[in-house]
C-alpha cells in the first residue's frame, strides 16, 4: 500500500497548520517539471496574449476590481500565463488603447502559469493525480478529495511580487472550509529568495483562524473582489473554537510582528498548507528564480459545498474538479 504521512507528521500538520515533507519528488521528477515549465514559458505566443497581469490586491475596503478579465476567469481548465506587474514600463491606456510595454523577455516576466496543469500537462499530471497524494489526502481526513487550481508560481528574479498574509480558503471556499494546498519546491527556496513564511497555529479558531473574507467574482461581472465571509469560518471538527474566537482578546489574532516560520525548502520537497493557516512570501529580491508547483485539494463529499461565487468554477463538462481517489 502506498505510504502517505506518519502519525507524527499528521500531528504536526494539525498543530501548526503546515508540514514540510523533504524529498517528496525524486531529482528526475523535479527536473522534468522544471523542463516542462521552461518549455511552456518558451512556447506561449506573446503576440496574441492579452498581457493579463496577476494581482489580487489585499484590501476589503477598496471596492476596486482585482484581476478578473475573461482570460483569468476562464483559465480553470486551461494552461494560461499571467504576468508580473513589475515586468512592464507602463499600464494600459484606455483612452488610446495602448498596451503596457514589457521590459523583460517573456520567459522572465511571468508571475504564474495556471490553472489546470494537472490535467493538461503530462509531467504535472503524473505527480498530481498519484497514489501517494491520495494516501496523503486520506491521512488528512478527506473522503472525496478533488484537485483544482494547479499552477507554477515563478517568482522571477528581482521582480517576483510579494504575496501578503492570506488563507487559501479565502480563494477556494467550501461550506464548511476544507482546502489544503500542496506546494512543491521546483527550485531551492529559502530566506532572501521569497520563500514561504508561515504563521504557525494561525489556522486555529482561538488564533483568529476562521475565514473572515473571501475572494469572489463581482456580481456585475467586472472582475473579482474581496467580500466579508458570511458562512462557516472553520473546518468541520473545529467549530467549537468559534465561540472561543468571538470571546478572545484581539491580541491573540496573528499580526505582522508575531512569530513567523521562514521556511528553508529544498527542490523536490513538499509543503502541505492548511486552508485556514495564515502564510505569505516576500518579494524576490535575489538574482535567482524560485519556481514552485502548487495545487489545492478540497472535500466534495456530501456535507461540503463548493461555493458558486468563487472565482474558480468547475469545468462545465465531465464530473467537475479532478477526483484524486481512483
From TrEMBL:
Origin organism lineage: Eukaryota, Fungi, Dikarya, Ascomycota, Pezizomycotina
Q: Which cofactor does it need?
A: Fe cation
Sorted alphabetically, which Pfam families does this protein's record hold? PhyH
Similarity comment? Belongs to the PhyH family.
The source organism is: Aspergillus nanangensis
Question: Region Disordered: what ranges?
Answer: 223-258
**Gene Ontology molecular function terms on file:** metal ion binding
Q: Which InterPro entries match?
A: Phytyl_CoA_dOase-like (IPR008775)
Q: What is this protein called?
A: Phytanoyl-CoA dioxygenase family protein
Supply the alphabetized keyword list.
Answer: Iron, Metal-binding
